[in-house]
Write a structure and sequence with these properties.
Layout lengths: L2 E7 L9 H15 L6 E5 L2 E6 L4 H8 L5 E10 L3 H13 L7 E8 L8 H15 L4 E2 L6 E7 L4 E4 L3 E2 L10 E6 L5 H11 L2 E9 L7 H17 L2 E7 L1 H10 L5 H20 L3 E3 L12 H8 L5 E3 L7 H11 L2 H4 L21 H8 L4 H9 L3 E5 L5
Parallel strand pairs: 5-6, 5-7, 10-11, 10-13, 11-12, 13-14
Antiparallel strand pairs: 1-3, 1-4, 2-3, 4-8, 4-9, 7-8, 12-15
Length: about 400
């Protein structure tokens, strides 16, 4: 018998006339992550039903739970809409449980309003039937040791015991394409993950300073992208060498302004890349007030280096919240590997916290901006990173 898995979504149901587009995108994303599992994904009213080979059951459940847009998944058993068949299947399911699981409740969801018994009555019918079949069972609505759930569809009835929580959000790719500025630290991977949760398909841009930094910082960026790809599919990782820009800033500009000047150069390079590849926004890991370059004044001055939309998913989060999320999604242990990145090279002792745009632009006027940007963009290397599935 093939494994049957019910997939539920939440926010998508509120999309009105556009709902079909969101459902189709979610269906395509689920098919993509299950393409090697011999599984089919069918859309029903308010649900998806996945059928797969039994031996892949746990893999299917795990992968579906990491698809953005999925609220929960359940391994279900199906039967006809005949009441006696429903009662029979319910008894078969409960019979497999150990005797110590003796406190229970029944929850019914009647999608098919033509079914003759409303949900509360079905709860009572099934509860009474199970107590007749298994006298040791006790109804306990508040603290059951198991819950038998019944969903009455238009063609079939589905029974199940458990729900695995999904990530929620929107299916990746439905809201557009963005460029994540991936530093290798704790914050930026979390920002990318949150952007993906809101339906953005993400490409990543990593700046490095080889030979001032080792290749290991670039390897860390690859590992972070591989982790993120497990949630949203293939990620293109773009790498640009900015060592020459950093040397020029150090020799030509005041030390305390170097961080802001460098970030403006990064933003310009990201804008050029976004224009080249048709990306609609860039995503950064900035959190207001966390470091000197993330004061309101600094963020404002940096933002003025581009006309491209900048998204900052972490802007209101504190460090603990970001670390907790990084731990949950699996990027934290990668991010804390002690490899130098470009942001640690030539770091000033006292970076300015309230930069003046006029002062910054006066110093930039002394630089060959176009030449520096051209040399940096010519160092571009791109790697397409696939998720590593279990």
């Amino acid at each position: 018998m093939p494994a049957k898995i019910m997939v539920r979504y939440g926010e998508i149901a509120l999309k009105g006339k556009n709902r079909g587009q969101f459902e189709h995108k979610l269906q395509r994303n689920m098919k993509k992550v299950l393409q090697d599992c011999q599984a089919t994904v069918k859309r029903e009213r308010g649900r998806f039903m996945v059928s797969g080979v039994e031996e892949y059951r746990d893999i299917i459940l795990e992968r579906l739970s990491k698809v953005f847009g999925v609220v929960s998944v359940s391994l279900v058993e199906e039967t006809s809409l005949d009441l006696e068949q429903i009662k029979k299947l319910a008894a078969e399911i409960v019979n497999k449980l150990p005797p110590e699981q003796n406190k229970f409740r029944v929850e019914t969801r009647r999608v098919n309003k033509q079914f003759p018994y409303p949900s509360p009555e079905m709860n009572q019918i099934l509860g009474s039937h199970l107590q007749e079949q298994f006298p040791h069972l006790i109804v306990n609505l508040k603290q059951p040791t198991f819950t038998l759930s019944l969903e009455l569809g238009y063609k079939k009835a589905y029974l199940y015991l458990d729900q695995t929580a999904g990530l929620g959000g929107l299916p990746v790719g439905i809201t557009g394409r963005g460029l994540l500025l991936l530093s290798g630290g704790i914050d930026s991977p979390v920002a990318g993950w949150l952007a993906m949760k809101r339906g953005l398909m993400v490409e990543a841009l990593h700046f490095h300073s080889f030979p001032f930094t080792s290749r290991r910082s670039q390897e860390k960026a690859v590992d972070l992208c591989r982790n993120l790809a497990g949630y949203g599919g293939k990620i293109s990782l773009h790498s640009i060498n900015i060592a020459n820009i950093q040397k020029e800033l150090r020799s030509q500009c005041p030390d305390e302004l170097s961080v802001i000047l460098l970030r403006r150069m990064m933003i310009r390079l990201a804008g050029l890349l976004g224009e080249r590849y048709g990306l609609q926004a860039m995503i950064t890991g900035e959190s207001l007030g966390q470091v000197a370059s993330q004061t309101l004044e600094s963020i404002d001055v940096v933002s003025k280096a581009t006309e491209m939309l900048i998204l900052r998913p972490l802007i209101g989060m504190d460090k603990k919240e970001i670390i907790d999320k990084a731990s949950t999604i699996g990027t934290y242990q990668i991010s804390i590997l002690p490899y130098e990145d470009c942001c640690t090279v030539f770091m000033p002792k006292s970076p300015v916290t309230k930069p003046s745009l006029e002062v910054i632009e006066n110093h930039e006027a002394k630089l060959d901006l176009d030449g520096l940007l051209e040399k940096a963009i010519n160092s571009l290397e791109t790697t397409h990173i696939q998720p590593t599935h279990s």
